[in-house]
Amino acid sequence: MAQLHMFWPDGTALPRLEALDIFHIESGGCTGCALELASLSRALLAGNHPIRFVPTPRQAGMLLLTGSLTVGMAPVVELAWQAMPGPRVLAVVGDCAVDGGLFGGNYAVLGGVGVRARSNVSLPGCPPAPDEILAALVRWQAAEGKR
Amino acid sequence: MSEGIVALIRQGAPTPCAGRFVLEAEAWQAMIAGLSAADLPLLGLWSDGVQVHALFHHDPMPLVASVVVSSGGYPALSPVRVGARAPERIIHDLWGIPAIRGRCDPWLDQGRWPVASPLAAHPAPTPGLPEGREFIDDAAVRQAGGTVLGYGPAEGNFRAPFHLRLGLPGARIEAVQPCMGYAHRGVAARLRGLAPQQAARLVARIDAPATVAHQLAFARALHNATGTVMPAQDVAAGVMLGAMERIATHLDVLAQASAIVGDGRSATLAASMLEQMRQICRNICGRRLLFDVIPPAAAFLMNVDGTQLATLAAQHALLHRLFWRPRGLAAQARGKGVLSATMAARLGIMGCNARAAQKGQGDVTDRLEARLGEIGASLSLLAAPPESAVMEVEGGGGEGLGWAEGPAGPVWHWLRLEAGHVAAWWCGEPSLAQVQALPAILSGAAYEDVDLIVVSLGLSATGADL
């Protein structure tokens, strides 16, 4: 059982992880969920774990969105999705990405992507903690592995 | 000279908001004429649809000059205060109010909003531009025939989206066009009509790295508007939570900057300290990111464990040594992304970035060093909290202004209450001035250094766009 040591002081126990390349887009929130994702990313990187965040959608298998979708970011998200190769999955993390949260639809915001598109991973919270995000990814990997 | 302008503003009609005066059109024009030779930094410019308000930095109390908007708009401040350029364009985007002799091209609305002037009384539907706004390249870029590179809005990082169009006629950046609005959520429109408690939840989520500063500034504005004193317990909580937020945000910046230059030891240490700080926040407030902590719950115990603080202080000393070691982060960032003290003053940039510019040449190293210093000062503050007194009320006639020192600079909130609900609101964020300074800061930089420079500023597009 691996340990995610950067989550001080006790670390978080990790099951065996499958390789996963994630492209993250902050699509218009307060960046709280993105901050927690950054914490998770650093911990995974420090532990040489096979889940990693990549700088381009062209090498990603998962598109992970945080924040409500603004009208300005909608075409950006669409382009990133189209640029992803092969089988791809969508994850929405945080209340805003799941259903809009406090930032529902208005002239500048379309709302949560979770209610507009079918997502493979959906994790509410404002914001969810890094270990909760990781647990959701691990649960999804385990469910996919059983299929 | 600035005292003459201050006297001119104070001759205007007083308002329920302490320090705000409504000027006649002629007095506003005279103020603009006098500002060109006065040392009175502009901190913010906004509108409520009826008037335009300009916030100036003045000791001991900030000063707000207002003018009623005429049918043709209002005389622009941007000819004498370059920091007014973006706010004038934002006012035009949101309200449709033009700045006479100012620019009116879009800043937030990149052609995709379904309505024009969404905050105006009668927003007009607009078909929008399916492809968005087109860029017009700078003459230097066109003549040099160089490369044009983009930065953002989706770089796979963990920051709010914005776009920079960078012209590189040679190896160095010469032209920078910021494109904002990707993170605009219409916060001002959302707040209208909300009860203060509902509004506070939304305000806490304007910008996560500065959430305490936003909550505190909003709470102060609300106390000033309602004429109620802020209890000493709340003031003390604000000081402590502000220090915790400052430590966490500065550590996040240092972790990002270290990772960008490939300094693994510093990056890991800063990230580890950040996690400790987040755990401390969770232990005290039940929240890692300090949302909804102002006003504090009665059960909050604002004491940080001495052992934890001692550990953090020791790690801070080590981080400081790593920062200054040969070929460390300081050496690698030296000379990059210079924000001069003059430029900071011209644009009304304050906070740690301005202090870094005054202390040194204002490059990335100076800014990161300033953040390191503030981490140490904040740890000392947590170890020995100062005595706090109640915050005295300024005003109390249904309109209030409040501010708080955020990690990247002062955050301002202004609000007007009607029947106990928010009728008008404005927020001044340091990021908007930083975005306006980007063309000067990035000029001459290598494309590879853009990420580092942006990170070192603590620039938050979500705060700039609102």
Describe this structure in words.
Chain A has 147 residues and is of the alpha/beta class. Helix content of chain A is 32%, strand content 23%. In chain A, the strands form three sheets. Chain A has a five-stranded parallel beta sheet with strand order 4-3-5-7-9, sandwiched between helices. The model of chain A has no long low-confidence stretch (mean pLDDT 88). In chain B, strand 13 and strand 14 (409-418) form a beta hairpin. The two termini of chain B are 35 Å apart. At the A-B interface, strand 3, helix 1 and helix 2 of A face helix 8 and helix 9 of B.
What is the compact description of this entry?
Chain A has 147 residues and is of the alpha/beta class. Chain A is built from four helices and nine strands.
Radius of gyration of chain A: 15 Å
Mean pLDDT of chain A: 88
CATH architecture heading of the largest domain in chain B? Orthogonal Bundle
Query: Helicity range of the residues of chain B?
Result: 40-55%
In the CATH scheme, the class of chain A would be Alpha Beta
**Tally of structural domains of chain A:** 1
Order of helices and strands of chain A: EEEHEEEHEHEEH
**Low-confidence regions of chain A:** none
Total of helices of chain B: 17
Task: Count the DSSP helices of chain A.
Answer: 4
Give the strand order of the largest sheet of chain B, numbering strands 1, 2, ... along the chain. 1-2-5-4-3
Question: What is the number of strand segments of chain B?
Answer: 15
Strand content range of chain B: 15-25%
Strand order of the largest sheet of chain A: 4-3-5-7-9
Biggest sheet record of chain A: 5 strands, parallel
- Low-confidence regions of chain B: none
What structural class is derived from the secondary structure elements of chain B? alpha+beta
- What average pLDDT do the residues of chain B reach? 90
